[in-house]
Amino acid sequence: MKKRKLGKQGLEVSEIGLGCMGMSYAYGAPDDTESLATIHRSIELGCTFLDTAEIYGPFKNEELIGRALKGRRNDVVIATKFGFAIENGTRTGVNSRPAHIKKVVDASLKRLQTDRIDLLYQHRVDPEVPIEDVAGTVGDLVSAGKVLYFGLSEASAATIRRAHHVFPVAALQSEYSLFERGVEDEILPTLRELGIGFVPYSPLGRGFLTGTAKRAEELPDEDWRKEHDPRIRGENFDRNVRIAEFVKDIAQEKRAKASQIALAWILHQGDDMVPIPGTKRQVSRGESWRRRNRTRARRFAQDPRLPR
């Protein structure tokens, strides 16, 4: 798999990353054995940019990645996140106070069994803590060698600018796909002006672009989406399925998968983008991510029916 640089700060990663959240959090019961095999298979295929967070579990996903990377730490780039208050295993709000950030980073390093975090995101903006204080604290952690690069998640253009003025932001992570394009008007132009990379999560439209989305009532009770995602309820679900049909039609014509079309479109939006589709299971050994996404991406993305 090819590599890309996220913005101008020098962070180089595989052109597609692996979103690890669902292995431990939100999407039903975990299967650690299968998740470990999935991580190892991803690395074999060249997908070496792993995305996690303390809140996934909480804590269990970082621990899983720590186990998966024994003896392989230098083969991957690890991104994790801080920003929530967690009490007795439950999220109770946001917390980006400097002392809390430093405490969280030390705990994440221990769970990940590593001496540094390659990319540290603020998971959600804390309205009680100036973003300048957050950026300065992460800058101190970079100086200490515990963190290599600073990132933000779901931040506004104004917040990005303020943070970047204090300490360089390497990447922003927000939702982006053919299905969800809210960042295009203001966020993406700001990132490109400042030389900040972009990491789209849910690049497959939360399953709608691949035809795998399920109605809320079909999900198990432990699945976070059952109660918290309005896109999969009632008439919303039916409308969203219809919206995504055109991607499936294009995929059939090109003898490809809808997921390939969706990822190819993201990759074609700019070399500063690195999508992180999530999965809980291994890719079939009979398939090659490298061949599909390197030789087909440009051709798929040129289809005039795909929005620019």
Folded structure, characterized:
The strands form 3 sheets. The protein has a 7-stranded parallel β-sheet with strand order 3-4-5-8-9-10-11, with helices on one face. A two-stranded antiparallel sheet has the order 1-2. The protein has 11 helices and 11 strands. It has helices spanning 32-44, 60-68, 98-112, 131-143, 157-166, 187-194, 225-228, 234-253, 258-268, 289-295, 297-301, and strands at residues 3-6, 11-14, 18-19, 49-51, 77-82, 84-87, 90-94, 117-122, 147-153, 169-175, 197-201. It is globular, with a radius of gyration of 19 Å. Residues 284-291 have low confidence and may be disordered. With 308 residues, it is α/β, with parallel strands linked by helices. The chain has a domain at 3-204 and 270-281: TIM Barrel, CATH 3.20.20.100. Helix 1 packs across helix 2 (60-68) and helix 5 (157-166) packs parallel to helix 6 (187-194).
Feature tags:
308 residues, two-stranded antiparallel sheet, TIM Barrel, globular, 11 helices, 17% strand, seven-stranded parallel β-sheet, alpha/beta
Give a brief description:
This protein is an alpha/beta fold. The chain has helices at 32-44, 60-68, 98-112, 131-143, 157-166, 187-194, 225-228, 234-253, 258-268, 289-295, 297-301; strands at residues 3-6, 11-14, 18-19, 49-51, 77-82, 84-87, 90-94, 117-122, 147-153, 169-175, 197-201. The chain is globular.
